[in-house]
UniProtKB/TrEMBL annotation:
The protein's name in its UniProt record: DUF1707 domain-containing protein
SUPFAM superfamilies for the chain: TerB-like (SSF158682)
InterPro entries in the record: TerB-like
Organism, scientific name: Thermaerobacter composti
Superkingdom in the source lineage: Bacteria
Length: 272
């Protein structure tokens, strides 16, 4: 074989390989579409698993072919399942089955484990019986059950700074003989600035009957039936109670638990 023939042969072989790679990519893209439809709602049903297997067979894809895209598929399924920041048992089983389908060990699923635990807990708090927690030292009433305890601090609006703003005699000018006009004069005054300051550190306890803050310096408690308004913030909660002039303000030690406290409070108020 001449040098020219070898060059032509190598070129044709390269063309064939490029064409095969392009065809494989096309078939993988078609399979991606089937996968996307299956995981769109966060749960893959048995029928959808059958559809995945049939699509793989019709497209002539090997297990090695589909395993090449398993990482992106699992991430896509995980995103769909936790879009609402909740992880139900059904969604979790579906993710495990999808990982098995793609031969991906469960401990290698690309996910933030702490975040998944939080999403799982939020789902359980909304749909399952509330947990019962131990609160040593808390005197419970008959039929009272504590369901959550969260470290935090009781806040109160207080004066945090005072300053004096001096007066001014202003200035005057003559407008006629024996008559002067004075402008700009004012007396000095004390200006106060207020802010929220921690007055007691302790634990926010949520029971089926009351919201309780047990602090090292001050404690407050109110029955859910007397709560008239609740505002949840990124790092705390404000509770307004009948016959109480000022609302109860509590800042959480861990701001990441604000949503968890909000879910528990919502359940307890609605069930009170």
């Amino acid at each position: 074989m001449s040098v020219w023939d070898r060059i032509v042969h190598a070129y044709r072989a390269l063309q064939t390989e490029v064409a095969r790679a392009a065809e494989r990519q096309r078939r993988l893209n078609e399979f991606r579409k089937v996968v996307a439809a299956a995981v769109a709602d966060g749960v893959v049903t048995l029928d959808e698993f059958d559809a995945l297997r049939e699509a793989q067979r019709q497209l002539g894809l090997t297990d090695a072919d589909v395993q090449a895209i398993r990482g992106e598929v699992i991430r896509q399924a995980l995103q769909a399942a936790t879009e609402d920041k909740r992880l139900s048992p059904e969604e979790e089983r579906s993710l495990q089955q999808l990982a098995e389908y793609f031969d991906l060990p469960a401990d290698q699923i690309p996910a933030n484990r702490e975040q998944l635990d939080r999403y799982r807990l939020l789902y359980q708090l909304e749909h399952e019986p509330l947990p019962v927690v131990m609160v040593p030292g808390l005197v419970l009433r008959r039929g009272e059950t504590p369901h959550w305890s969260e470290p935090g601090e009781l806040l109160e609006e207080r004066v945090i700074n005072r300053r004096y703003e001096g007066g001014s005699s202003g200035f005057s000018f003559r407008i006629a003989k024996g008559v002067r006009y004075r402008v700009g004069g004012h007396r000095g005054r004390i200006v106060t600035e207020t802010g929220l300051v921690p007055i007691s550190r302790g634990d926010l306890v949520l029971t089926n009957r009351r919201i309780v803050f047990r602090g090292d310096r001050r404690s407050v408690a109110a029955e859910w039936t007397k709560v008239i308004d609740v505002s949840l913030y990124l790092d705390g909660i404000k509770v307004s109670v009948t016959n109480r002039a000022k609302p109860v303000l509590i800042r959480f030690a861990d701001s990441r638990n604000a949503e968890i406290v909000g879910v528990v409070v919502s359940r307890l108020i609605n069930e009170a």
